[in-house]
Amino acid sequence: MATNNSQDRQNKLVNPQHNPTVATLLSIIPGLGQAYNKRFLKGAALFILFAAFVIAMMEFISSGLQGLVTLGDIPREDDSRVFLSNGILSLIFTAFFLSFYILNLQDAYKDAKRIQLGWKVPNIREGFRNAWDTGFPYLLVGPGLFLLIFVVVFPLLFMVFLAFTNYNLYNAPPRNLLEWVGFQNFYDLFTINEWRNTFINVLSWTLIWTFVATTLQIALAMFLAILVNDPRVRFKKLIRTVFILPWAVPAFVTIIIFSAMFNDNFGAINLQIIEPLFNTRIPWLQDPLWTRVALITIQVWLGFPFVYALFTGVLQGISSDWYEAADIDGANRWQKFRNITFPHLMFATAPLLIMQYSFNFNNFNIIYLFNQGGPAVRGQTAGGSDILISWIYGLTFENQQFNMAAAISIILGLLVATFAFFQFRRSRSFKEEGTF
C-alpha cells in the first residue's frame, strides 16, 4: 500500500526533475536556490542583501560578541557597559540574520516543491505584485516591531545580563571592569542573612499588599455598584458621578494630598479625627504597620472607581428575566447574587480584574509618593512599606546595587508572568463555552 501511494505521488509530479533538496542546499549561499528555481531577480536581491549585511555588520558582530565575553580588558579605558550593549546588539543582529537565512532556505524549498507540482514561475511584474500583496502586512508591522525590539527587548536583555555581573557601587565602570559571576547574585540573595531577610519580608508584604488592597477595592466597588443598581435607589446618575470622581483626579495628586492628611504631626486625620475621639495620635509615617494600613486605605480609594464603572456597565446588561425566573423559583437575595449577579460580573470582567492584581503588584507610584517606601527598618536594605518594585528602584538609584536590582527584577518578572499566565488560562471569559 505504501509503495502504491508513493507511485501515485510520483505520477502527479509534473516536473519530477526539479529537486527541492537541491534548491535548499544551493540556498546555503542565499539567492542561488532562488536562481535554481528560475526566480533570478529574487535570487539576486537576496544575494545582494545578505552580502551587504555580512560586509557591513560582520566586523561589528564579531567584535561585539567577543566584547560580550570579556567585558573589556583595560580598566579606565574600556567601559564594560559599552561592551555589554554592543554584545546585546550583536546578538539581536545575529538573530535577525539567522531568521532571514532560515526563511531564505524555506522559500527556496517551497518554490521548488511547487514547481515540481506544475506551478509556473511568475514574470517580474506578477512576482512583484505577489510580493507586495504578501508582504504589505509585514511592512506595516515592521516599524512597530523594530521599536519594540530596541525600546523594550534591548533594555530587558541589558537588565538580564547585569544580573550575572558584579556591577555595584564599589565596582562601577569605567574605573573598574565588570566580570561575569554566574548565579552568584541569586545565591547571595537567598543565603546572605541581610539580603534573604529583606527579600522575604518585602516579598511577603508585596503579596499581602496586592491581595488585600486589590480584593478590598473590588469588594467595595461590587457592593456599591449592586447597591446603586437597586431599582429603589433614586438619583442614580448623580451617585454614579460622585463615585467615579476619585478616578478623574490624577492619582499622584490624590496620593500627595493623602500623604499630608496622614502626617503624624499636622495631618487632618490625626488632629481632626483620631485625637479628638481617642486622645492619641497614630504614627502613620513612623510605624511600618500603620504605614501599610494607610497605603491599603489610599489604594482602595484610588482603585474602586474604575472597578465600580466596570461592574455598573455589566449590571445594566443583565436581563431582568433572570431575576424574574429566580423570584418564581423562590430564590432569596443571596441565591440571586451567588447564581446570577456574581457569575455575570466575574465572567465579563475577570481579565480586567486580574490586571488590577498585576498592576498593584507593581504599583510603584503610591509606595514612593506616600512615604518613599519608609519608614526605615533596622537590618534591612528596604523600607518598611517597600514592595519589590520600589525596593528595586532604591537599590538602583539610591544604593547603586545594579546587579542585585537586576536579579530581583528577573524574579519579579517571573512571578508576575506566572501569575498572569495561569489566571488568564483559568478565567472563564477565555474559554469557548461556560455555564452559569
Give the structure's gist in a few sentences.
Helices cover about 75% and strands about 0% of the residues.
Characterise this structure.
The chain has 436 residues and is mainly α. It folds into two domains: 2-162, no CATH class; 185-430, MetI-like fold, CATH 1.10.3720.10. The chain has helices at residues 2-12, 20-26, 32-36, 40-70, 80-116, 124-162, 184-191, 193-229, 236-248, 251-261, 268-278, 288-317, 320-328, 333-361, 364-371, 388-397, 402-426. α2 runs antiparallel to α5 (80-116). The radius of gyration is 31 Å and the shape is flat. The relative contact order is 0.08.
Topology:
Layout: H1 2-12, H2 20-26, H3 32-36, H4 40-70, H5 80-116, H6 124-162, H7 184-191, H8 193-229, H9 236-248, H10 251-261, H11 268-278, H12 288-317, H13 320-328, H14 333-361, H15 364-371, H16 388-397, H17 402-426
Helix pairs in contact: 2-5, 4-5, 5-6, 6-17, 7-8, 8-12, 8-14, 9-12, 10-15, 12-14, 12-15, 14-17, 16-17
Note the run of SSEs as H and E: HHHHHHHHHHHHHHHHH
Let me know the number of strands.
Answer: 0
| Mass-distribution shape | flat
How much helical structure, as a percent, in the residues?
A: over 70%
- Biggest sheet descriptor: none
CATH architecture of the largest domain: Orthogonal Bundle
Look at the structure and give the CATH class of the largest domain. Mainly Alpha
Percentage beta strand: under 5%
CATH H-level superfamily title of the largest domain: MetI-like
| Total of helices | 17
Cα-to-Cα separation, first versus last residue: 52 Å
- Tell me the radius of gyration: 31 Å
